[in-house]
TrEMBL record:
Signal peptide annotation: none
Domain Flavoprotein: 5-173
Keyword Ligase: yes
Protein name listed in UniProt: Coenzyme A biosynthesis bifunctional protein CoaBC
Binding-site list for CTP: D282, K292, P310, D311, V312, L313, F330, K344, K348
GO molecular function list: phosphopantothenate--cysteine ligase activity; phosphopantothenoylcysteine decarboxylase activity
Cofactor note: Binds 1 FMN per subunit.
Chemical reaction(s) catalysed: (R)-4'-phosphopantothenate + L-cysteine + CTP = N-[(R)-4-phosphopantothenoyl]-L-cysteine + CMP + diphosphate + H(+); N-[(R)-4-phosphopantothenoyl]-L-cysteine + H(+) = (R)-4'-phosphopantetheine + CO2
EC number: 4.1.1.36, 6.3.2.5
Sequence segments annotated as region (Phosphopantothenate--cysteine ligase): 194-403
């Protein structure tokens, strides 16, 4: 009775088989899932499969079990409705308020967050009719995940691929985690473009060696996922993070601090907020050895001369390419954490600075974090030790407050 109730709508596209993996992840993580397919979806995955995996009877029609009024009750009782895959036809019917089957009736009666994960050919996704339907749904507060780029049906490749089911699950988990707040305003970042940097830069010394750091990128990816679940368009500048791209994010892979600077400044040109969660190297080798540096018997290695990298956070804070842009920095400290953080906030000129203590076995690579968010106005918001997702939502709450 206490399980979150999720309605999984499945429309008739070849990606319908991937919804089985999403269903499995939802049920195994403790959600009560009711599958509502369209008639077309049953051409790809049969009714018996959905019933067996969900533990509930499956129907596409409003006339089954009429005494239970399923076309009203299913949507009314849901904590989340997710449609994956959502075809161009389903998006169009949802945008225009049609109610000719059980799924579209459910969408009209749902008062909970509604998530669409589109999947279709590139030409269909880019068609003005589809773009207008997506804009309409987003304007009404629905969360429409940007499709992935990759192999489509047949030999076609392009944007329109269903995001990985694991990432759709993470998206849904983040929406559900906001609970009652999400029901009131599931998309408080809707219409906003945010840029998040994540991971750690690597500065090449020779073809096989580099100077780097221990950042895994997990906090930056948590920030990206949280923003996506709140309706934002997200550009994720990822530096050497071995993590799957969050569903719907525009991921820009970079390696060095100079590459990260270029990507962040380009994306920040029309961004409402920039969160610099990446660990950017302060220095890089002054010279790059074209061949592997060899050790020589009886000789000590030559010193490695370093030069400063550009200070991307300070540059962003000073330039503010878009009026009202909120800039958030991160400070990884090993001692005098708050004192160093306050000094860095004043030096960098950003609006918010997330200060946390780091070490060989602390923060980097962990699933949890503890921090204090410093505001340039003097406020301090402590975030107790807990999942990095929780810190991510606190950061976005403070950004929204500034807007």
């Amino acid at each position: 009775m206490d399980k979150p109730r999720v309605v999984l709508g499945v429309s008739g596209g070849i990606a319908a088989y991937k919804a089985c993996e999403l269903l499995r992840r939802l049920t195994e993580s403790g959600h009560d899932v009711r599958v509502v397919p369209t008639d077309s979806a049953l051409h790809f995955v049969g009714e018996a499969t959905w019933s067996a995996l969900s533990g509930h009877p499956v129907s596409t029609r409003v006339w089954d079990d009429v005494h239970q009024v399923p076309h009203v009750r299913i949507g009314q009782q849901a904590d989340l409705v997710v449609v994956a895959p959502a075809t161009a036809d389903t998006l169009a019917r949802a945008a225009h308020g049609l109610a000719d089957d059980l799924l579209t009736n459910t969408l009209l009666t749902a008062r909970c967050p509604v998530v669409f994960a589109p999947a279709m050919h590139t030409e269909m996704w880019e068609h003005p009719a589809t773009r207008e339907n997506v804009a309409t749904l987003r304007r009404r507060g629905c969360l429409v995940i940007e499709p992935a780029v990759g192999r489509l049906t047949g030999a076609d490749t392009g944007k329109g691929r269903l995001p990985d089911p694991a990432e759709i699950f993470e998206f849904c988990r983040r929406v559900l985690a906001r609970g009652a707040l999400a029901a009131q305003d599931a998309a408080d970042l809707a219409g906003r473009h945010v840029v998040v940097s994540a991971g750690g830069t690597r500065e090449p010394l020779d073809p096989v060696r580099f100077l780097g750091n221990r950042s895994s990128g997990k906090q930056g990816y948590a920030l990206a996922r949280a923003a996506l679940a709140r309706g934002a368009r997200v550009t994720l500048v990822s530096a050497n993070a071995a993590l799957p791209g969050p569903a719907g994010a525009d991921v820009v892979a970079v390696g060095t601090a100079l590459q990260l600077r270029e990507a962040v400044l380009k994306a920040a040109a029309d961004a409402d907020a920039v969160v610099m969660a990446a660990a950017v190297a302060d220095f890089r080798p002054a010279a790059y050895a074209a061949g592997k540096i060899k050790k020589k018997d009886g000789q000590e290695p030559a010193p490695v001369a370093l030069v400063r990298n550009p200070d991307v956070l300070a540059e962003l804070s000073a330039s503010r390419p878009r009026p009202g842009q909120v800039v958030v920095g991160f400070a990884a400290e090993t001692d005098d954490v708050l004192a160093n953080g306050r000094a860095k906030l004043a030096r960098k000129g950003c609006d918010l600075l997330v200060v946390n203590e780091v070490g060989e076995r602390l923060t980097f690579g962990a699933e949890e974090n503890e921090a204090v968010v410093l505001d340039r106005d003097g406020a301090e918001t402590p975030v107790p030790y807990g999942p990095k997702d929780a810190l991510a939502d606190v950061v976005w709450d403070l950004v929204v407050r500034r807007w």
